[in-house]
Every structure is written in structure tokens, then in C-alpha cells.
Structure to design on (70 residues):
């Protein structure tokens, strides 16, 4: 997961308003047991996403699951 996280981090340096990159980095952080990092990335994905973003409900559901575990 570290390599994927690094790749998405690089993408976010070039395009910080890419909600899909935030979401995907969050998924990889979750898989790497970095729950705080995943929560932050999911929140950022929702913040920068356009209205009606296709992964909005999925991201909200993942965020809710993670915050309930805390």
C-alpha cells in the first residue's frame, strides 16, 4: 500500500482538487491501517468533489464506518 499511497500523494501535489486521488489514497491508507489518514483523505475528497460526484455516497459511507470505529 505504501507505493500506491506515494503515487496518489504525488498526484495530489500536482492536482490537489482531484477527489478520486483523495479517495483512492484514503482507501490505501485504510488498508495500511492508517485510519486517521484515511478519514482525513475521505473528508478532503468530499470537500473538493463537485456536486453529484459519482463516489460521494461511497465516500460518505466509508467515512462513517471509520469514524464509528474510533
Amino acid at each position: 500500500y505504501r507505493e500506491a499511497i506515494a503515487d496518489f500523494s504525488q498526484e495530489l501535489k500536482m492536482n490537489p482538487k482531484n477527489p478520486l486521488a483523495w479517495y483512492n489514497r484514503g482507501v490505501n491508507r485504510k488498508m495500511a491501517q492508517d485510519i486517521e489518514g484515511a478519514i482525513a483523505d475521505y473528508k478532503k475528497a468530499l470537500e473538493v468533489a463537485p456536486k453529484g460526484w459519482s463516489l460521494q455516497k461511497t465516500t460518505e459511507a466509508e467515512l462513517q464506518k471509520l469514524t464509528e470505529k474510533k
Residues 35-48 form the longest helix (14 residues). DSSP finds four helices and no strands in the chain. The chain has a mean pLDDT of 96.
